Amino acid sequence: MKNRTTLAAVLAVLLCTACSSNGNENAPANDQGCDASPCEMSTQDGGCEACTECEVCAECESCSACEANRTTSQLTDLDAVMDALEAGHHVRLELDLADCTGPAGAQFTGKVGMLIDVFEYFGPGVVYPNSPGFVSFSETVLNKGNDLFYHYRKARAYPDGTVKYMDARLDGKTFETQTVDEFECTFATANSAGAKFFYETDREAHFAGDDATTYPGVLPTFADLEAALEQGRTVRSIFDYDKCILNGQGAGPHAVGGLEAIVWSHFAAGTHSTHDGEAITYFGSRLANIYGFGVDDFVYNWATVDLKDDDTVHVYVEFINPVSLQTEFSEYFDCDMNDAVGGPNGATYFAY
Prior knowledge:
The chain is mostly beta strands. Helices cover 11% and strands 39% of the residues.
């Protein structure tokens, strides 16, 4: 991991250098001038505990080379992964295919890395009767060999410790499956190989008022979220659909979704099509492998989110055929914003 120095450490080195140039090898890197001793420098602000002080200026540079304050923790089961995701953390998967069971007769030695950006969790029995719960996430990249094709990768993690990974190649025009390889792996632990899930811990608080121990911070109101976006912060939304109203009728299924507000629009009062007050709208679109829909079970899973100044949230979802661009399925959810992780409402927003 690349070492990072804090601002205090950099200033300490500069000050020590300046004092040394005046002929005082043991001058302090503080505001007491070049006559005080010893040269003390603390680099603990931001979670770095590897270095505490330097006795002489010559040691300041090496002392400032502290281990980065952004570390990772490994997650060894589905509950831990979901706890991290629902707390707003970014989770990454690192997979060594040599540790997995692949297609019969084939040997794979490559490694795969994925960020769980957009994700969906389905509780037990939601997908079909007696189905296990699982979290699913994917990534698609347009690539080029002799012809254009889509490289689709998907992973699912299950409560029994199984992790399934799909690697597919789709025709760039028809979306028909050209090749597909499927692997079955298990969660890695500290003493065993397998699928390794990580999330960042002890992250530096990026903005005044954030507490690094509870980072990222929850945005409880529309006004808080609007301010975060206008400050250039990244905003992530987590939807507990069973705490929302599905299609205007009743509680949604036991499912959870995650989506970032990457491209967003703000509507002034009176300019939004379905809300009289202010609103913020953002979209998400992901090629998804969903049985019974689209081309060879591939569709665009498209969502639009309307966040309104009364702290209500409307989520509209469609499955769109990637060739005909016809909508094959749609549903919508109405939620309220939460003021804490695990709150009673369906929509929780985080800022980074």
